[in-house]
Amino acid sequence: MMAAIRIAVIDDHPLFREGVTRSLSESGGFEIVGEGATKEDALRITDAKRPEIVLLDISMPGGGLNAIEAILARHPGQKILLLTVSERTEDVATALNSGAKGYVLKGVGSRALAEILRAVAAGESYVSPSLSARLLSDLSARSGLPPMTNPLATLTMREKEILRLVASGLSNKHVARRLDLQEKTVKHHMTRILAKLDVSNRTQAAMVLRDAMESGYPPA
Fold it and tell me: Which of 81, 85, 158, 202 keeps 20 to 30 A from 17, CA to CA?
């Protein structure tokens, strides 16, 4: 049996912090080793408990962005994930340049957050797809390159159809039945979808679709 991933949750909104703590505990595979509300709490808990991942808000006393540099100065290998409402590309860029392993918006669901934390614990980095696209668009604008377009634009009509069904929670087998396809055909399409969207799993692909639709991009 794999050891639980040790998490510290730092957020100055008690109800939100308790909700995150509860949802991760109920997801299984996580151990909450500390909770706090400030930059100083983040430093104290990291020093004392050495969690695998520190989950930080940006807008807390002392500042989440300031906490990243302070934590990494003491513990260079510490994994830090920002969970925040801030969609400012400047905040995303600062967090990543300071050494954070991920940047996630607070609208994320509990299951998706658990998947992201597992990915970060395994050594991956993660940025919410809508913010990643916006960051690339801003970089393109500054460099004179064409702006980033709808991330779903590279998908075929069949791939978009399959992605919508997968995002609704259907398995490959059920998608195959719905579309009168072979299951291996659906698997092949999903492999292409993940590659085109530059994501590593079905949950991230579904989040790309959701974020694109929330940004006003049509799914087809």
Answer: 202
* C-beta of residue 133 within 8 angstroms of C-beta of residue 214: no
Degrees to nearest 5, angle at CA 84 with 139 and 211: 60
How far, in Å, CA of 169 to CA of 203, rounded? Answer: 9
The pTM score is 0.65
Q: Is 65 exposed, middle or buried (0-12, 13-18, 19+ CB in 10 A)?
A: buried
46-62 exposure pattern, b = at least 16 Cβ within 10 A, e = fewer: beeeebbbbbbbbebeb
| Eight-state DSSP code of residue 151 | T
What is residue 155's DSSP assignment? S
CB atoms near residue 202 (< 10 Å): 18
**Contact in structure between 113 and 83 (CB atoms under 8 Å):** yes
Q: How far apart are CA 136 and CA 210, in angstroms?
A: 18
CA 14 – CA 25 distance, rounded (Å): 16
Q: What is the pLDDT along the chain (220 residues), one digit of tens a residue?
A: 678 999 999 999 999 999 999 999 998 899 999 999 999 999 999 999 999 999 999 999 999 999 999 999 999 999 999 999 998 888 888 898 899 998 998 988 888 899 889 888 988 888 877 676 666 555 545 544 444 456 677 788 888 899 989 988 888 999 999 998 899 889 988 988 888 887 888 888 888 887 777 655 544 4
